Structures are given as C-alpha cells and as structure tokens.
Amino acid sequence: MDRQRRQFLDDLLETATPSGFETVGQRLWIDYVSEFADEVRTDAYGNAVAVLEGGDSSLALTGHGDEIGFMVRDIEENGAIRITPIGGSDRTVSKGQHVRIHTTDGTVPGVVGQTAIHLRDREDDSIDDIDDQYVDIGTEDADETAELVDRGDPVTFDQTVSELENDRIAARGLDNRIGIWAAAEALRRAAQRDLDTTVYAVSTVQEEVGLQGAKMVGFDLAPDAVVAIDVTHATDASGTPSSRKTGVELGEGPVVVRGSANHPELVRTAREVSADADIDIQLQASGNRTGTDADAFYTSRGGIPSLNVGVPNRYMHTPVEVVDLADLDAAADLLCEFAAVADEHEFSVDV
Questions:
Q1: Which of 74, 91, 150, 337 is deepest in the core (most CB within 10 A)?
Q2: What is the DSSP string of 271-284?
Q3: What is the pLDDT of residue 268?
Q4: CA angle 206, 212, 218 (to 5 degrees)
C-alpha cells in the first residue's frame, strides 16, 4: 500500500463516525473519490455514491462508513454522564477506556469509570450493562457537565491506529472504514482501465443500527449487481471457541461468502476472477444471513444480485480490531477485477 493510500486509510480510521453521525467521515471519503470519479452524489441521510461512467450494465461496490459507539443518555447530579449504546457495542470492553464526546462545539475528553479493584466486591464478577456505565469528564456537578455536553451527543473510544508486526494494524472502527477504503480504491483502479460497466463506489450510513443506509441506496440506485465489502471474523485468534471457527485466517486473503444473500453467479464470478488474477481468497459459509449490507441490497426492488466479500478481522466490535493490510489491498484488487468482467455476465439463476 503506497503512502497516499495509507494516509487515506489512517484519515478514515482517525475520524469518528458513529451511526447517525457520519457526516465528517463521509465528507472525507467524498473528497478522496472526487479526484477520479465522474460524479459524486449524496442523499438526504448522507449515503455517498461515486460514479464511474461505463456501459449500460452497472455494478455497485459498497462499504458502510459508520462505526459503533455510545451516546449521552443522561447527566447525574454529580456530573457523571450516563450512556447508551449505538449499534452492537460490547459492554465487556468499555469500562476503563478513554473516550471522546463529540459535541457541536468540539470534542470533550472523558473516561468510562471503573471502580478500583481494591474497592470492588471480589466475589462479584458481573459486568454492568452499558446503560449502567458512566463517563467521567472531570466536572463537579450536573450544571458544569451540561455546559459542555448535550443529551444525544455521540461518544467514541479515544483510540488511534497502532502498527503491529507483519504489516498488520489495530484500531477501533476497522469495521467498516476498511470497506469504504476498498470500494474507493477499487474505483480508483477501475478508473485507470477502459471498463464497459458503470461502476458505483458507495459509502452507506447506519449499517450498525439495521442496514438502514443500504436499504435507501438499494432502492434508489437499483444497480444490476452489488458487492458489499465488510469485515468478517478471523477465527484464528486465540480463544475462539472451536464451535465458532470458520477456517478464516488473517493474512490468507479476502473472503468470498457463500449462501443466504450471496447470489451463486456472483460467487462463481468472484472465484473465477480471483483465479485468473492470481488473488488468494478464502471461502466462508453463511447459512442464514451475512450480517452485512448485502442482506439489505439483495431484497431491494424485487431482488438485486448481491455478494458479500469480507476482510478478516480479529476482535470485532472492540477498540483493538486487527486486520492484515495485505488482505485489504487484495480485496481492492478483487473488486476491481470483478468490475472489469461484470458486463460479460448475466447474474440470474437458471431454473
């Protein structure tokens, strides 16, 4: 990954975009893709679509730009801030963390309080629900806190990108800023080729709270096919229960998902493209649902042929998610190669 592409990724990861508050991250993405897209447009809720004009057939390459987080729910008399989750936030990892509250006047630093081990009941190992946890910003009473924050202000972990060994990184919100990075990068690479397909790169909003942005985009855009790129669980991490292992490993390439929302012809095309382009991929089974925007796209407008491509991710929905940059770069390659042949295929099931 060259310096410019890596800087774009770091900028995405260092920008807070909790569901419902994605505007700053969407603007960052739009500014980047505007350099090579023929058109970029947004809708009423901030879903962003970059267009590369080609032939009559159309393919959407999509990721979601939002991340999980928290929100200010209430302010107590002593100034403590009660929070509520945005999306699937994990109550087991939030205590004792540095956070930032994003207000209309800027960010306010704080910490999620944790009673010291010396003072806790050693026989009580229960974990408070997020609604029972609180943020301490150093204020002395409710009036002082209310001068700084409002109910409904979003809250995210104060976590930066860490460089690990073997070209791997750790950060919060890799789910799914890596997906919108891959969609943008695939579009950039496609712009350097003479494609006969109109390609859309899409950054959706509010995936973490029910795939809401994808529902809007799928109806409005109505492409011939969609490839939704998101993270997927790398189950090679220590501690993964054997019953939940999928064979997906970090560093072994992007993941083509089979079953449920994944159209068999898109799966077949992705496997053929990866073989022809010498891109290592992994396969994953999805018997019921993918848990990604693909689940919304494939039922839009009577059915849009869809495929979920995953980037292996350890420790999902924690502040220390881990991905291998080689997997991410290969995912962008796969998406670009898919776009290059999309016009040659009719994505329908022969019954």
A1: 337
A2: HHHHHHTT---EEE
A3: 97
A4: 120
Return the percentage of the chain with pLDDT > 70, whole number: 100
207 included as an active-site residue: yes
From 67, 185, 207, 337, active-site residue:
207
Domains of the chain, earliest start first? 3-67+172-344 (3.40.630.10), 70-157 (2.40.30.40)
In sequence order, what DSSP letters do the residues of 23-86 get, joined into one string?
HHHHHHHHHHHTTT-SEEEE-TT--EEEEE--SSEEEEEEEE--B-EEEEEEE-TTS-EEEEEE
The DSSP secondary structure of 218-254, one letter per residue, reads: HHHH--SEEEEEEEEE-TTSTT--GGG--S--TTS--
What whole-number distance in Å separates Cα of residue 342 and Cα of residue 270? 10
Q: What is the pLDDT of residues 86-97, one digit of tens each?
A: 999 999 999 999
* DSSP-assigned states of every residue in 74-137: EE-TTS-EEEEEESS--TTTTTT-EEEEEETTEEEEEEE----TTTS-TT------GGG-EEE-
Q: Residue 350's pLDDT band (boundaries 50, 70, 90)?
A: confident
90 vs 159: CA distance, rounded Å? 15
b/e for 177-207, b at 16 or more Cβ within 10 A? Answer: bbbbbbbbbbbbbbbeeebebbbbbbbbbbb
